[in-house]
């Protein structure tokens, strides 16, 4: 299970984010990206010492200031479910690994490419580029 | 999860008051005039909230005016709108009955 995949699945769920400076932010995750930047809504910010609180309608937190995040347990189940579904669709992922060479790297993106049926003759076919990522979006 | 994707959508904050926390502990508030994908920000009529000398984590009511500033993206920790932000008097995580 990839950390960022878990985080992406946690979208629309309540999360707790603790920053390196000790402040915590409780809110609903609207969005996160591959830098772990997160966008929260209906946030309660707690100071480091835990005795001051602010209500903030929404906030954008830069990923590199995050110490850790807490996500609800049910998100784990959701990730497992989705990974399972995805693997089921493409049973022998390993045989098709060649298409993953190139810009996609070995990560989720590479597989999304094949999902869309967009692996052109060249392996880096331009059809694949458009599908990558977006195909995965719909699954999540 | 595409690499291009950005959780950042500051367009809706343009010409609105935003509060920015910077790494190192400074906090500023100003009108967002511009930004880029690196999260560099242009803030106008900026005020900085000064911190307690003995407890640098704690911001005080004291402010100082900075005017037009550019915040470097790498130093930005948090951006939120000023409107609707309020300090709460009681701990919102306590049971509703217990806080009263």
Describe the structure.
- The complex is a heterodimer of chains A (140) and B (100).
- With 140 residues, chain A is an alpha+beta fold.
- Chain A has five helices and five strands; from the N terminus they run H-E-E-E-E-E-H-H-H-H.
- In chain A, strand 2 (24-32) and strand 3 form a beta hairpin.
- Chain A is elongated, with a radius of gyration of 18 Å.
- With 100 residues, chain B is mainly beta.
- Chain B has one domain (10-81): Roll (SH3 type barrels).
- Helix content of chain B is 4%, strand content 48%.
- In chain B, strands 4-3-2-1-5 form a five-stranded antiparallel beta sheet, with no helix packed on it.
- Chain B is globular.
- Chain B starts with 16 loop residues before the first strand and ends with a helix.
- The mean pLDDT of chain B is 88.
- The A-B interface holds A 4-5, 8, 19, 21-22, 26, 30-34, 37-39, 43-44, 46-49, 51-62, 65, 108-109, 132-134, 136-137 and B 1-10, 23, 25, 39, 57-58, 76-81, 83-88, 90-93.
- Strand 4 (53-61) of chain A pairs antiparallel with strand 5 (76-81) of chain B, so a sheet runs across the interface.
- Chain B: Residues 5-85 form the Sm domain.
- Chain B: Belongs to the snRNP Sm proteins family.
- Chain B: Keywords: mRNA processing, mRNA splicing, Nucleus, Ribonucleoprotein, RNA-binding, Spliceosome.
- Chain B: InterPro entries: Lsm7, Lsm7/SmG-like, LSM_dom_sf, Sm, Sm_dom_euk/arc.
- Chain B: It is found in: Nucleus.
């Amino acid at each position: 299970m990839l950390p960022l995949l878990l985080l992406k699945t946690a979208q629309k769920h309540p999360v707790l984010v603790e920053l390196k400076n000790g402040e915590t932010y409780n809110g609903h995750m609207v969005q996160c990206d591959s830098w772990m930047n997160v966008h929260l809504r209906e946030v309660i910010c707690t100071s480091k010492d835990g005795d001051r609180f602010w209500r903030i309608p929404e906030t954008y937190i830069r990923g590199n200031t995050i110490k850790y995040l807490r996500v609800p347990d049910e998100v784990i189940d959701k990730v497992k479910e989705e990974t399972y579904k995805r693997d089921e669709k493409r049973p022998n992922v390993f045989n098709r690994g060649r298409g993953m060479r190139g810009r996609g790297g070995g990560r989720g993106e590479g597989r999304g490419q094949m999902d869309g049926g967009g692996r052109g003759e060249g392996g880096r076919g331009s059809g694949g580029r458009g599908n990558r990522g977006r195909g995965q979006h719909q699954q999540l | 999860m595409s690499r291009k994707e950005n959780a950042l959508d500051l367009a809706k904050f343009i010409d609105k008051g935003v509060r920015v926390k910077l790494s190192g502990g400074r906090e500023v508030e100003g009108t967002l005039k511009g930004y880029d994908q690196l999260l560099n920000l242009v803030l106008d009529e900026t005020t900085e909230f000064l911190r307690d000398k003995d407890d640098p984590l704690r911001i005080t009511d004291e402010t100082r005016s900075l005017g037009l500033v550019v915040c470097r993206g790498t130093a930005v920790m948090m951006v939120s709108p000023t409107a609707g932000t309020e300090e709460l008097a009681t701990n919102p995580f306590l049971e509703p009955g217990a806080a009263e």
